């Protein structure tokens, strides 16, 4: 833990007291988003202290020219980056002629932020003494509407406390912004057009190269003591890429001056390029029609609907409760699953780091969360995203020398093209293909919906199977297929041979794809003929895949009775993490790369990731052996590591360990374990936190169309509960030390297996086991 | 072969005819240097076509901020670069008011360049028709004095052919130059001061960051028909970093107008910083005193002395003759061994690529050439260079986690600090340490001079042995020491385990260092106590090194009866290079990096490099087996590869193959095999060419203080001869099909072994065997 200023509350993230050192961290933690746009918790008014400005529009990116020390064939020319979008939130505030700037006030009292997760708004209040002696109270609420996802709302209120005051509000929209993360210090936005009237302003700009057109807009209304002021004189300032409108209100001591600012973006992804201002005007029209209070009501309702399906309660452990809700909230702020063109960036709308929006995190960690807490179209959209990018994955594989429709999905992408440029990752961390195939299997297993496979999934599976079949090498020395030169999920090993996880997932992909080819061929004849025509699949191909899968080599140690992470693992000096000098950690900050590589230390689950995906292929004893062999060498220096270990520790009845891993994953950002939350939150690992509870403590599995549970409870907790949308019915699970209660909101009884014992849950009739 | 415009002559490099496409290539091939400075064959006069300007001062470098995509701990902050130095050669030429520019003339006739290697000058002549109709003949000779190594000389003569003409010469010195190779497009030079008079000009500038101060100077004399003109009116132009002096001479048709320009550099490496202009004036004084003709005579004499010891003649194969002389000439232009602060950059003074001046090439390839063709101080200076940088090598190892005086020499360096920034090279290509120790052994073996070891060498050996002892890992699984995560000489493999070459050279270093510790302890008591005090060597250390060396693991294939290049080599798909589609080559331009890595293809000798260094540890049969196993997978995409193979093919009596490898290495740049000569020549591999003849065809070896030869002759040749300085006496070897003649220029008979038969060569009495 690196910080503990966040006040534990069940439904809110709260900060009290103003500390300049915490500003960037809080800008990340109090970020808001609605799936279509996002906003770091930057102050609306001028702030001259250290800050990291971030406004984001989902799907809008910039291909930043790759920066590299030593170029290798096959590197992509560009790294597609999430980019800082024009500023719509800005409001300069003047108090009796002095600009409000929290970095320059004489005193700041009662500073408080609250991110209300239940209702989806961000609220900031403080009292400040300005250098001119005026004391004011400020109260600002901001939210991004889920219902109208191009709309952001700000209510900015100022009350002078010790004298009458002239309050000026100067809201603006500004496309002249820069990016924190840029390889060559280039500007990413080109201004095209501005328009304004007394209440409204529009800046149309477009990204260089990608030519996403965006209208950034605002609409302002002034209030005195909560009453709208019909007409306030305005003075305007319009530049090429920035428009500000300035209003002044005189208020007596104790009276409230208010500015309501509607703002946001309309983008060419969703509207004709030449209709963006018109579209923005329509959003403004709707917002004005609904009005602030009603918009806030709608927002609460939208979030209530999300929580109704996705909430997890934890009794007796407020920090754990706050942690899990923060994770669920951020995931929903980032991605709502309405749009198959979007995906789940590793920092969501809370920062720029890593660029790209899509990693294997989506399939390996995020899919289960969205599949279980939302309607199944959302998970289908996540799968379709990859289907829609299959052509690019085939191109990507071609660049690396593969042929005949072999597909290699990118390590990092925005539009399907590979962005990443480290050979050991870009070219070698190919296990990512496995997670993409596994997600198709996982979707079918959980939802029971096979239709996705003949419709879209099979083509993806064929491309992936072709890749593995070509990528495996037949070793005459071993008389087996080997997979040479890879990086596994444990990125603290590079260019290794026969990474067990990669070989295992490859074998599985080959066999699963072969089975689906047979299945679709038999039962979905017209789909198959369409797919066969498109892919040119030959009748011998599936058999070849099976043959490669069956003859796959797996490194194994007879001495230890475990599969080896890769060839040669046992040559390492096997000193456990617990015997390492703590001063040496985190390794990635203390050791040179070669030292990390030749050490046995594991960044995140690797063999154990395979045991997580394919749990049913192994006995509990086998899991225990492998967990005991590998966990002691695991440094968990990836945010994606603790969750898998938490789930497996729970399965092995090691609840202390499971709980410790859970705490680390659930409060990773709130407590800033990795000293980097100011750069943004770890969005994708938040889905892992959710898995730790539902699959770890709750022990939820689906086996042959039946839900299995083996509920356990950490001794720190009194009870916890979660809900799952299982095939259209909502099942609630409430776990206490004394027993587990199941309740079904649906029409058809659901058979479940609890701790191996079969029972049935009937609609409206709670069952306790 | 990619070009063949160089006209074969025994002593000269000649180009005839002007072709803009060849300008950059010829700029590299016709480069001149004198060990202290160098100059690409840029035109003196303005040239508006594509050109690569390059002037270089030995030892002057710039630490360019590292550019990298993904930073790793341990990467150096800077890459020390050879940098383009201020221009001293420039002479703008006006003909009846029109600027001479070969890119803009109406016609160019009889264009000819000659680089006279025997005498060390570069000569360019041509006739041009200007746009104004004036026809002129131009004749320019340029050389860098070996005797006065801060002095360059230009004689620039213009004869109008069809009318009288006003010829203006505007010589200049210019520090406002840029670099082709810069990571961030920065300027590397800061101008400090200028001074000039009617005949002379000085620009003092310094490199940013490193603060090398340099005075760039010129001194001009005008001639009409070879007669000095006492006084010519001058008009001057002096900026911050550039001074030009303009002179005009009227000549009648057929008369010759001449400019003699002395110029060059004085640098703060060799003079007090505030005396640079003074030092330059002294050089000018000497040059004026000697005069042009005498300076040229001295130059011929200096080169005659070099050739007297270093020349190799080849009869019956003019291209091979030209090739070997070009290689010997370039090596001598680059490094003369007078200054232990300097070393042999991979491009010498012919380009900027690769930066740094020192690679393992120096010890592995260049040392033998300098050791055999020069007095032994030169080789000693090359060794001392590493001794002087031992502290930096220890620091470098510390950055990577080593301790207790372990030393890791840099992959690329200027001043001892590591420059390179690719983890797989910088951190893992550690075999370089082995070549540095081997050079000490090699020096002692050849020169018989043991004194270097107690004096300096032992400290280096101790640092290197400590590194290997710490870098090896004890594998309990193998009950042997293993070396994990390395890149061998074959850089087409990265991060492999138990690279045979690395393990072998490590074992050898450990054992050799242990023996030298014992030797010095016994016979050089006072040296040992000094070294022991300085290094803190413990009395058990040498025994530990031996123990690690003795228990070193070597991958071996019983099936093939060969050592394996690394663990897992036999898992690869072993398709021979000859069975590869030629369209796939060169691999480094056609294949992505992962594909290269998992292929069996070898960039340059790796196991065979070990067999080259330690030939006497293996039987001829073993060599043959390994050569036949590895050569078929070798693509020779390193300039350092063919020479080792040529030597071994000769040893195996495969003269056709040996000759083919020889041709490829000796004319690599002249015929531009790698399509990159315009970036500069491959200087260090030129020493490999020399080895191909002396050690390959000549079969020269030193065993137990005795010279061995096994002369062979390619059937394309009538005869060839070379000389070697063996322990202060000059032995000439003349090989013909009918027999080999030995001749000794010295005082003491030299025992030699020819094809296994012992004989003696007596001074002044040729022996034919």
Description:
Two copies of one chain form a homodimer. Chain A is built from 20 helices and 34 strands. Chain A has 769 residues and is α+β, with helices and mostly antiparallel strands. Chain A has a domain at 28-307: Glycoside hydrolase, family 65, N-terminal domain (Beta-galactosidase, Chain A, domain 5, Distorted Sandwich), CATH 2.70.98. In chain A, strands 1, 2, 10, 11, 12, 13, 15, 16, 17, 18 and 21 form an eleven-stranded antiparallel beta sheet that branches. A five-stranded antiparallel beta sheet of chain A has the order 9-8-14-20-19, with no helix packed on it. In chain A, strands 22-29-30-31-34 form a five-stranded antiparallel beta sheet. The radius of gyration of chain A is 27 Å and the shape is globular. The model of chain A has no long low-confidence stretch (mean pLDDT 96). Chains A, B: Substrate binds at residues 360-361, 603-604. Chains A, B: One of its GO terms (molecular function) is carbohydrate binding. Chains A, B: Residues 700-760 form the Glycoside hydrolase family 65 C-terminal domain. Chains A, B: Belongs to the glycosyl hydrolase 65 family.
